[in-house]
Fold:
Amino acid sequence: MAGRTNAERGRDVRARLLQAARDLISEVGWGGVSTRVLAERAGVRYGLVHYHFESLQALLRQATLEAMGAMLDGTAALLTDAADPADGVEAMLMELDRYDGTDPASLLFIEGYLAATRDAELREHMGAIMIRFRTTLATALADAGHPSADEAASVVLAVFDGFILHKGLDPELSGARIAPVLRALTATRTTEPNGAQR
Structure:
């Protein structure tokens, strides 16, 4: 396009490659993505993949980490906006309920987890994202007076992960079914398990 700088064109190509990577990971799995197919999906020349990223693995890694970080930051904002941590956890669960375990976002997360078992760098960065998310929740619980904030936050995150995995296998599973259990787990000195204030 006329008037665009090289830097702008480069940013556009990178963005297209990252989006194509996210789409393909969800569609064909991490190991099914090739440089040639990725370039074709992004609509760019084959050589531009390695011009903008040191390797295909680096591109897949960045695409996944950016998506995970953005999704978890958005979900964590629901906790920040809630009057009570238990309300925030329930809001986060209801947000996750939008995903059915077979949608592109769910599959990207699942593929990312699997790839992290074989990619130490991906595992390290994913771990940092998860720890940041868990720390946000643990801090909110601790500030509200929860007696086991760190442990409760760890269980909540494990439930969230399992919820997405199980929804792909059990379409009847819903956030409403498990929300009371999470509310009981995250109830603090100011909130009863049924949501009533003490």
About this structure: Residues 49 and 98 are 33 Å apart (CA to CA).
